[in-house]
Structures are given as C-alpha cells and as structure tokens.
Input
Amino acid sequence: MKKRALIVLAEGFEESEAVIPMDILKRCEVEVISAGLRSETVLGAHGIAVKTDMIFEKYNGTPDAIILPGGMPGAENLASSVKLKDLIVEMNLAKKVVAAICASPVVVLEPAGILKRKTATCYPGMEKGFSPDVRFLKDDVVVDGNIITSRGPYTAFAFGFKVAEVLSGKAKADMVASQMLRK
Output
C-alpha cells in the first residue's frame, strides 16, 4: 500500500526545505499532500509562492508521515496551530513519522512535548531552545525512533532521502538518489 506524507506550509517557510523533500518523496512513489496552514497559496521566506493541495484545516485523517519545513516566521506560524500540535502528538503516540527541519524541531516539536529524552538536530544556534532533556547532535539528519530532524536548507536533500528511506525502503531511496545523480 502506498504511503502518504503530509507537508504543512505556513507563511515564511523555507522553500527548499519543503520542495526538495516533496520532490524526492514523489519520485519514491509516496503520496504527498501539501497543505497550507491558513491558505492554499503560501508565500515562502524568500518570496516564492507555492500553491498547495488544500488548506490544513480541511485535512482529516492520519498520514504515515508529517513533514514540517523551517524558516522564519514559518516555523513560528506552524507552532501557532493547535490542530497541527494535536496531530503531531497523535502521530508521535502512534509511532508515525514526524519529520522537522531547520527551526521547526525547536519551535514546533519541542513545545509539542515529543522530544523528551530524544536526540535531535536543528538550525545552528537554535539548539539553545531545546530543553535539557533533548540530546543535540550537529549531524545533518538525526533519526530517533519515529522522529527525523535536520539542520537546514543545504541538508534538505539528506532529510528528504531519509524520510523516503523510512517510508519506501532503502533500496527505493537509493535508486532514486542514484537517478538524481547522488555521488
């Protein structure tokens, strides 16, 4: 059965952290649903407007993975959604993939309370926002159970491929990475 990933975009999101994982997941035959937090067309941090599939408030169900790009104020806007926080907590309890990059591990996942006694990474300097019970690593991508975190725009490829590997298997992710000219 085809896996489903939901990526939620909020005004001020980091464009590469959204589009690169979406592209990789689609190539790995994951059903990707993009949802704008407040509107269907969402303006990124660098002025690129992205038309999403739907408004997040209309999304029902539990996907196999949720992906949260960073960027500012995008991460802060994501963190302001009670519905999103509830979905993150629900997915974590169900051991579904919760993936966040850049500022979102600190700004969105930390307040949701799902990083207690976990290892994670984030954009450099933001780690000061982690509580003392989060073990911070400087790795490009960190996987701790069902939680995947990454550092920022340059690591979006590694982040996307790690989420793809978890959802589609290593063989499929490696094949797509090879087709995309990974060295």
The longest helix spans residues 15-27.
